[in-house]
Amino acid sequence: MQERWPDIPYRPWRSTCSALHLYIQIIGKYRLARSPWVNHSWHATLYTDARGFTTGLVPDGPGGIELSLDLINHEVVGRATDGRIARFSLEPMSVAFFHGRVLDLIRTLGGTPEFHGRPNEIPEAIPFAEDRMERPYDANAVTRFFRACVAVTNVLQIFRTAYLGKVSPVHLFWGSFDIAVTRFSGRHAPSHPGGIPALPDEITREAYSHEVSSAGFWPGGGAIDFPAFYSYAYPMPTGFAATRISPEAAYYDENLGEFLLPYDAVRLANNPEDMLMTFLESTYRAAAELGDWDRAALECKVGKPRQPRPM
């Protein structure tokens, strides 16, 4: 029986994780290139499915194409609405080779193999077609990461239900490689300063056009070398960083400007789902109260299967 919250230490699979991040960017950029713009770049994200991550249906080719990363059988699978299917294996390879295989797969499905060829949100990144360094592929680590993402997604989906205001889907942002859900106050926010590596400032400013409380999950990388949950507010209300939040394992990271909760603290808890929900609710409450959100108008009880929301 598979662990619901598997051990996913970042350092042992760092190189594979870096490669997977770039592969996911390539898949995501195809969706971005073919999908009409949706507020806050929600048209570009991927979604957790029963086997890995998927673009969902992308308007292209014979009517629509879906690209998926199967992280159980370890393959990229493309399906077109006219019945065509194409696939190739995930294994040790270069980013350039993966990029070429994706272009060939899209072409085989009758799609348009054209999208932006450089990574986003990665400093000094090499264009995909020029990144010829061989990358490892630790299949066991990838599958464990996927199973962790399933557990995380399930809790974030429940947290999402307790909000009547504007709230994002639970989705994977491939630029920063995090699964996120974002709540909105309904008010406009100050113009974001931008400055995110390899991301146009106009994209960042549109993403943060309104006040948010956002939370999610990283596998590790960049400023942290361990898997963690995060939560932040934009704009950050006065006193937010100094707020006492729960659980005790959570803390405010001055460099990131966000609250963090190590994944291992959740994984090893008696009730991981309850601990994660406590973190999500505690950090949101701090953002909403200090930011003077209209909580009475925005919040509701957590959703239950087959139970309509009481009015």
Map the helices and strands.
Blueprint: H1 14-34, E1 47-48, E2 52-54, E3 65-70, E4 75-80, E5 85-89, E6 93-94, H2 95-108, E7 134-135, H3 139-161, E8 171-173, E9 178-188, H4 201-207, E10 210-218, E11 228-234, E12 251-253, E13 258-262, H5 263-267, H6 272-290, H7 295-298
Antiparallel strand pairs: 1-2, 2-3, 3-4, 4-5, 6-7, 8-9, 9-10, 10-11, 11-13, 12-13
Q: How many β-strand runs? A: 13
How much helix, percentage-wise, in residues?
25-40%
In DSSP terms, counting alpha (H) and pi (I) runs of 4 or more, how many helices? 7
Which strand-content bin applies to the residues?
Answer: 15-25%
Distance between the termini: 41 Å
- SS content category: alpha+beta
Q: What overall form do the CA principal axes indicate? A: globular
The low-confidence runs, each spanning 5 or more residues with pLDDT under 50, are none
Strand order of the largest sheet: 8-9-10-11-13-12
Q: Describe the largest sheet.
A: 6 strands, antiparallel
What is the average of the pLDDT values? 97
Order of helices and strands: HEEEEEEHEHEEHEEEEHHH
Q: Can you offer a commentary on this structure?
A:
The protein is α+β, with helices and mostly antiparallel strands. The protein has helices at residues 14-34, 95-108, 139-161, 201-207, 263-267, 272-290, 295-298, and strands at 47-48, 52-54, 65-70, 75-80, 85-89, 93-94, 134-135, 171-173, 178-188, 210-218, 228-234, 251-253, 258-262. The strands form three sheets. A six-stranded antiparallel β-sheet has the order 8-9-10-11-13-12. The protein has a five-stranded antiparallel β-sheet with strand order 1-2-3-4-5. The chain has a two-stranded antiparallel ribbon with strand order 6-7. Strand 8 (171-173) and strand 9 (178-188) form a beta hairpin. Helix 1 runs parallel beside helix 2 and helix 3 (139-161) crosses helix 6. The longest helix is centred in the middle third of the chain and has 23 residues, at 139-161. It is globular, with a radius of gyration of 20 Å. The chain starts with 13 loop residues before the first helix and ends in a 13-residue tail after the last helix. The relative contact order is 0.14. The model has no long low-confidence stretch (mean pLDDT 97).
